[in-house]
Amino acid sequence: MSRIAQRFAALKAEGRGALIPFLEAFDPDRDTAMAILRGMPGAGADLIEIGMPFTDPMADGPTVQKAGQRGLKAGATLAGTLGMVADFRQDDAETPVILMGYFNPILSYGVPRFCVDAAAAGVDGLIIVDVPPEEADEIAPDATANGLDLIRLVAPTTAEDRLPKVLSATTGFVYYVAITGITGTRSASTDDLAAAIPRVRKHTDLPIAIGFGVRTPEQAGEAARIGDAAVVASALLDGMLATLDAEGRATPATVPTVLDQVRKLAEAVRKG
């Protein structure tokens, strides 16, 4: 059983949902990003999503785009991102790690080599925004051979007759995009989610994580109650941004601020 499956099974036994916080690799620099990554499990993260910085992130809103730009400026590469995961695994062998990004850097790296190296580093799952099920053969065989879950996105606009095709190619968990549009621009209502998630559950037994627009502890608690997990990205990046100096560099407040946000989100998820 994968780390992702083990974690969701354990949380189900506890009767609660999961918190999946996001950080961008190398944002605003590698050391700061590593400090945040290492501190997230202790602050209440159940799984962790790491963004792979890319120059043309089509699904990302302004906040995540800027985080990616900071990461690239700080020297982020795909190999460097995998190196962060490998360093994290020296102290944490249990918390599932999911990489989120786009296919172009993986293609440039070499798909077979990437999947081998990702698994060796301790990556558990991949969310590749611009690889639909119709093109899954580009990476699915290598991912599967190396024990990497391929996590698919399902949106409010995903047609009923398309859901089985998308979900049959999904492993690990389903990522439900709560809004139409790009990340971090608005939030879905509780009523919208309560109506949408049962539609997805009809077609899968996998856990459902809700992201894109989950910003506050209250929203995270609701998302984890209606689904199985809440993914929080832009709110954490905004919180971090507020601590950076005029040149975009980390300050002594950066790591504590982000981890305090994670703690508040985790408390709400556990209550939810």
Structural description of this entry:
- With 272 residues, the protein is α/β, with parallel strands linked by helices.
- The chain has one domain: TIM Barrel, CATH 3.20.20.
- Helix content is 47%, strand content 13%.
- The chain is built from twelve helices and nine strands.
- The protein has helices at residues 3-14, 30-43, 62-73, 78-89, 103-109, 111-121, 140-145, 163-168, 190-201, 217-226, 234-241, 254-271; strands at residues 18-24, 48-51, 97-101, 125-128, 149-150, 153-154, 174-177, 208-211, 229-232.
- Strands 5-4-3-2-1-9-8-7-6 form a nine-stranded parallel β-sheet.
- Helix 10 (217-226) packs across helix 12.
- Mean pLDDT is 93; it is low at 181-186.
Task: Summarize the model shown.
By secondary structure, this protein is an alpha/beta fold.
Question: Low-confidence segments, ≥5 residues, pLDDT <50?
Answer: 181-186
Structural class: alpha/beta
Mean pLDDT score: 93
Q: Indicate the CATH architecture.
A: Alpha-Beta Barrel
User: Strand count, sense and closure of the main sheet?
Assistant: 9 strands, parallel
**By CATH's scheme, which homologous superfamily applies?**
Aldolase class I
Q: Structurally, how many domains make up the residues?
A: 1
Helix share, percent: 40-55%
Query: What's the CATH first level?
Result: Alpha Beta
Roughly what fraction of the amino acids lie in strands?
A: 5-15%
Number of strands: 9
